[in-house]
Design brief:
The complex is a heterodimer. Chain A folds into 2 domains: about 240 residues, Aspartate Aminotransferase, domain 2 (3-Layer(aba) Sandwich), CATH 3.40.640.10; about 120 residues, Aspartate Aminotransferase, domain 1 (Alpha-Beta Complex), CATH 3.90.1150. Helix content of chain A is about 40%, strand content about 15%. Chain A contains 13 helices and 13 strands. Chain B has one domain: Sufe protein. Chain: A, CATH 3.90.1010. Chain B is built from 6 helices and 3 strands; from the N terminus they run αβββααααα. In chain B, a hairpin with a 2-residue loop joins strand 2 and strand 3. In chain B, helix 1 crosses helix 2, helix 2 packs across helix 5 and helix 4 crosses helix 5. The longest helix of chain B is centred in the C-terminal third of the chain and has 22 residues. The chains are: A alpha/beta, B alpha+beta. Chains A and B meet through helix 9, helix 10 and helix 12 of A and helix 1, strand 2, strand 3 and helix 2 of B. The complex binds pyridoxal-5'-phosphate. The site of pyridoxal-5'-phosphate has 14 residues of chain A, from helix 3.
Chain lengths: ~375, ~140
Amino acid sequence: MNKKLYLDNAATTKVKKEVIEEMKEYFDVMYGNPSSQLYELGRKSKEAIEKARKEVADFINADEKEIYFTAGGSESDNWAIKGVAFANKNKGNHIITTKIEHHAVLHTCEYLEKFGFETTYLNVDQYGMINLEELKQSIRPETILISVMFANNEIGTIQPIEQIGEIAKEHGIIFHTDAVQALGGVRIDVKKQHIDLLSVSAHKVGGPKGIGAMYIKKGVKIDNFIHGGGQERGKRAGTEGVQNIAGFGKAVELAAKNFDEHNDYLIKLRTKLIEGIKANIPDVVLNGHPTNRLPNNVNFSYKYVEGEAILLLLDMEGIAASSGSACTSGSLDPSHVLLATGLDHGTAHGSIRFTLSDEITEEDIDFVVETMRAIISRLREISPLNK
Amino acid sequence: MYTETVMDHFRNPRNVGHMENADGVGQVGNVKCGDIMKIYLKINDEIIEDVKFETFGCGSAIASSSMATELIKGKSIDEAVELSNKAVIEALGGLPPVKVHCSVLAEQAIKSALYDYAQKTNKTIKGLENFNPEDEEEFGCH
Ligand SMILES: Cc1ncc(COP(=O)(O)O)c(C=O)c1O
């Protein structure tokens, strides 16, 4: 039996040992309700939350008071977009986003269209980059929000966030960025990058699932999201998932501490995998930007074959990855991100994303390349295309 | 997600490949939808002596093609025309609902190859009177 290789770290990550250790205490030792401030158990829970809040704030150069815990990236995206739309509808009804956002953003914008909001979906080039001129030209007097993801989950492309932030600022438009994939892989500085709202999620950085955060710059006009008690300064009610928040804080602390070392290593692996695939497998297309991409992301299309078949064969070799093929999504079309980069349907169906972690070694990369070479040549023998 | 039989036919597909001088060739599906099946038939005395397939598509598309070719190999033309997608699904021990179209493609690919054979040999095959290989193009993705 081969070693298991988990190469789907953009989907989720293994929870780090230190994170699990950190969380344990809050189940049966420090189990008090953080709102119960009159006894120690409650105060300890509250302290844990505030410690984590500081970790998250420091990591993105925000103030602690600007960090609100949520149930994850999807909730943060929903809150940012609906919250700004409803709080600013007296100013306008126009939102600008991109064609390659996560569905948590796209479907939220579609939902708002029922309430009279209008959305412009910016195009991307073949590498998945938006065009700043198109962004500027899309701005109208009624534009109240620009939401552009920091880095894409499928192809890893990193957007020119600082320039987008500047444009938004010049026009007095609120700028939200979905940084769920960027956290831990790209330097985030909400001040320097002029970010007003930012979504992050713990489970992409070695933290637990079901917990995330939103950065809301002081002064930004946004509706409260969950109505109830006074938790999260009254903006997001509900007894806090203390253990999850503590775990998130620990995961961020580790990500901050090992940032350069971690990412340098991932970039080394990424380069080796990209070069290995290009050198050993003909008729492949690298999806995403050649260099301006997340350190852990490798996404290729393999012509004349289909992604689900590749994934099944990879699984037999103990390798977990993902695909933008329609077959794997249960929908009729391949990934909206790949189509937005101009890929034809056939090539999009043959895409495979590997997302690396620091548990992967250089030998593992050699194994992945060799396994892919064999799988692709086998499926191409079965395929009627290109003969 | 897939039955053992599906996985077996996906991993070790029977009758894969191209056939020189086939008596009937049929191709259905399109790249846009993510699956294409091509079937080659060698026919002698109204019996399908040999059959080969080439498929672009997901695991269940490859397994359905493989199973369909097994089910018609050595059979008469009349029997092959009768092959339904249900029979393919049954032989595979079931397919997830979203993959049922793979078995439909397999049925259509075989009919299309038989149709081609009938055209080339100027025969009429009972059960194919209303078959039009162009129809498959109209279907759109399933
Ligand atoms: C870019 C992006 N945004 C949002 C999300 C949703 O995050 P969560 O799973 O925490 O709701 C994800 C994760 O799938 C993502 O990759």
